[in-house]
Description:
Layout: E1 36-44, E2 47-52, E3 64-70, E4 84-89, E5 99-104, E6 110-113, E7 123-127, E8 131-137, H1 145-158, E9 161-167, H2 175-179, E10 188-190, H3 198-208, E11 212-216, H4 223-230, E12 256-259, E13 266-269, H5 283-287, H6 313-318, H7 326-341
Helix pairs in contact: 1-7
Amino acid sequence: xxxxxxxxxxxxxxxxxxxxxxxxxxxxxxxxxxxxxxxxxxxxxxxxxxxxxxxxxxxxxxxxxxxxxxxxxxxxxxxxxxxxxxxxxxxxxxxxxxxxxxxxxxxxxxxxxxxxxxxxxxxxxxxxxxxxxxxxxxxxxxxxxxxxxxxxxxxxxxxxxxxxxxxxxxxxxxxxxxxxxxxxxxxxxxxxxxxxxxxxxxxxxxxxxxxxxxxxxxxxxxxxxxxxxxxxxxxxxxxxxxxxxxxxxxxxxxxxxxxxxxxxxxxxxxxxxxxxxxxxxxxxxxxxxxxxxxxxxxxxxxxxxxxxxxxxxxxxxxxxxxxxxxxxxxxxxxxxxxxxxxxxx
Length: 345
């Protein structure tokens, strides 16, 4: 005969012993005061290659590369190339050892992009860089000015100094293309398609001296060729341009930081990109990089996008207060604003 629920009492309840034990979980986390500093130079499937300076982590230890994994207490916190981190565990550089990243130090700068202009999720590409090198071929494949504009917006938003590098100048005169960027005062370097263009490489090396520079560009523009010329031991794979589509083949699968010979700077090579979403960028941060136009925005109506009929910048420029280059500067500003909003793609 079945018993009613009301007939049960506590003696009928069986308590299953906990497998975790009775020890209460502590909210305290280890401080890892003994963590030693290093710089992330590569990321591959949850493993981080970290460069540690000589003498760090123990007397007499040389400069060395340490393989590490992320500690559980960091949770979902992302770690990217360029991050300065703290390590515990085996930091001797033993190829069979594995350290743990237990700390990510505050970033001085962050280069990021979104998948497209409607995606609010930011994807951090590189941390702690101070220069964005935008590489574009003048021919084979044809240059993509709108992608360059988007990279410029990303550089301004991240507080990085932009540098425009034009390759394959032996195939096309760079003058007309550079004229489009003259009002922006973007520094530039011109190189040929020859892998041993020493004159172009020397000029580029001078611009990289003492900096952490991120190289971006779509596939086939000669980015990896430049990196191999600057860092001969890099051995970055070089792709070819498809004769039908005019597009290059992706050869770099992940970002990697490479030190320039002599130790006077860093080059971070990134995979070729075909889009650069800017959904995360605040339009007002672009205006700051046009100090000759920014005062005129004070007369704009509230919420002005600076690319509409009511914008006060037109009258400001027409009055001559922005200087003789005002009209071309305003055109460049609006081109970047349109690049951010996706109207030019």
